[in-house]
Amino acid sequence: MRTPIARVPKEYYVDEETGRKLDELKLNKEQTPKTSKVEIPEWLEKKRAILEAFAASRGLNFAEIEEDTNCLRYCYVCRLIKPDRCHHCRACGFCVLRYDHHCPYIYKCISYSNYKFFLLLLFYGAALAIWTISTEIQGLVYHFMHGALYLGIQLVVGLIFQLLGGIFVIDVIRFHVSLTNTNDTTCENDKVPYLRFEGASYDMGIAQNWKYLLGRRLWILPVSTRYKDDN
């Protein structure tokens, strides 16, 4: 899990002048009285035009937009237009590509660059849990059959904790396998992304979704096997 977190490429960062204009519009938004949803505020029209013009000047294409404003998603902290599936991580302090979640157990964002390794960590952990539980059961049977009751009780306590840990890991695997089958993320599972194109979806079918995330081969090995043309 030492793989660097996937950061946003520099072409998505706005220039100083564009950032200043967007900051001014944000200030205008805070000072402007709320209007009806039918009426589009002037600041919103200007913001939308600025973001679209900047994206066009850089040759950037986006499918994901803000649901309530239909604007491109802009991060005022990082001063960039968020690529599709990108979200700002408050714990890390910057925007992350294909943000899944910030994992508290490894204190790192699970993202585009390390999702495969996160899945492998879960699968390896589940395999270790199954092996440990099976050997614990074997030892438990042996000690009870040979009258070593004290050691048997120790093994029972250890087995209970290992079962709880194994159940937790397997449940997390089940959840992330279901996400991978549909090419979703934990973040998108909580809030469905709003795409500007009717019928658009990140789901490419189960087989292609797994290939997209894990590559064409060497899935079981902790080596990078992503498609080179992914962006």
From TrEMBL:
Topology term for the membrane: Multi-pass membrane protein
Boundaries of every Palmitoyltransferase DHHC domain copy: 72-189
Localisation: Membrane
UniProt cross-references to PROSITE patterns, sorted A to Z: DHHC
Keywords: Acyltransferase, Membrane, Transferase, Transmembrane, Transmembrane helix
InterPro entries reported in the protein's UniProt record: Palmitoyltrfase_DHHC (IPR001594), PFA4/ZDH16/20/ERF2-like (IPR039859)
Keyword set includes Endoplasmic reticulum: no
Record-level GO cellular component terms: endoplasmic reticulum; Golgi apparatus; membrane
Family: Belongs to the DHHC palmitoyltransferase family.
Reactions catalysed according to its record: L-cysteinyl-[protein] + hexadecanoyl-CoA = S-hexadecanoyl-L-cysteinyl-[protein] + CoA
Pfam families in the cross-refs: DHHC
Enzyme kind, highest EC tier: transferase
Molecular function per GO: protein-cysteine S-palmitoyltransferase activity
EC numbers, comma separated: 2.3.1.225
Highest taxon above the source species: Eukaryota
Protein name: Palmitoyltransferase
One example of a Gene Ontology biological process annotation: protein targeting to membrane
Transmembrane intervals: 117-135, 147-170
